[in-house]
């Protein structure tokens, strides 16, 4: 499978970050299929039952950085099962309000 990388950076409130982390946690707890999104785009991925977890906390001067990395390897594919393609899902954009 070709390499796929999606990277989004944005400035959010602590509450918005909390909501996203909680949604990710619920998705991981609920099923092996997890939908992740940002800025109206989303992708659905299959997550293995066992994953590697890496937490990095870096404090340098007045800047603090927390990195959370979750990774896994796909298991050997069973030829009787069809591969599930990973495809981006676009969501409708909110309507623009008209000025009165």
Automatic annotation (TrEMBL):
Membrane-spanning segments: none
Source organism, top-level taxon: Bacteria
Compositional bias annotation for Basic residues: 88-100
InterPro entries: Amphi-Trp_dom
Stretches for region Disordered: 72-100
Residues covered by the Amphi-Trp domain: 5-82
Coiled coil: none
NCBIfam families: amphi-Trp
Listed name of the protein: Amphi-Trp domain-containing protein
């Amino acid at each position: 499978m070709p390499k796929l990388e999606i990277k989004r950076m944005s400035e959010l409130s602590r509450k918005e970050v909390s909501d996203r982390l909680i949604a990710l946690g619920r998705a991981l707890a609920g099923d092996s299929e997890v939908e992740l999104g940002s800025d109206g785009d989303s992708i659905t991925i299959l997550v293995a039952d066992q994953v590697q977890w890496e937490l990095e906390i870096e404090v340098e001067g007045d800047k603090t950085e927390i990195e959370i990395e979750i990774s896994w390897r796909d298991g050997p594919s069973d030829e009787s099962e069809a591969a599930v393609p990973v495809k981006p899902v676009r969501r409708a954009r909110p309507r623009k309000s008209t000025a009165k």
